[in-house]
Amino acid sequence: MITLYTTQPFWGLASPSPACMKLETWLRMAKIDYQIDPSANLAIAPKGKVPFIAYQGQLIGDSTLIIEMFKSQEGIDLDADLTAYEKAISVAFRRMIKENIYWGCGYVRYGVEENWQIYREALISMIKDSVPIEQCDLMVEGFYKIFQEQIHAHGLGRHNDQEITQIMMADFQSLSDFLGDKPFFMGDKPTTLDATAYAYIANTIKPPFKHPIIDFVLNLDNLCQHSDRMTQEFFSELA
Fold this sequence. Notes:
Number of strands: 4
Order of helices and strands: EHEEEHHHHHHHH
């Protein structure tokens, strides 16, 4: 059995980290037995962040690389039935989610002061059992500083609120348009794209933040229904 290093559940989410939630969703979809270590011990994380796993005596980081490892070494491929064309679409959407929507979700949490205060308290509550209390504030402020530097370097952080909202609305609209009335993004069966989209959609609409981006996604009924469907299917204990 593998050990999944992740965060504890929060706000009715398997994890408030979209990457952690994506990987845990994929593991459940693939019916891979795992145990949770919720300490999120970054000191041993091979990439310096969660999620990562302990597998066959090794620590392996990055959710995408972990999934690819199971595909190549264990022959576990949730996308095996897709055509080459469908696989290309899946990769493109997953990259959009990870490399653009990720930063938009982060902006809502870190870049909007009212939301940051809520998220700051949530972060402290999640680490206070594994980090000395006197270090919690310092660590959380470090997270804030790092994210602000990274989003600026990425480029999204150079835009104003209205521009970021416009960009994110276009991304979520494209997901909604592609999903249409299908139960899952690639048809009748959930695939890796569903695990990825679910983690980011749920982490947009479930936390108690306020922003026009969130309002927009909440009005995309098929994305919200997809999130509910995935929760019922794979995280019924959180439903």
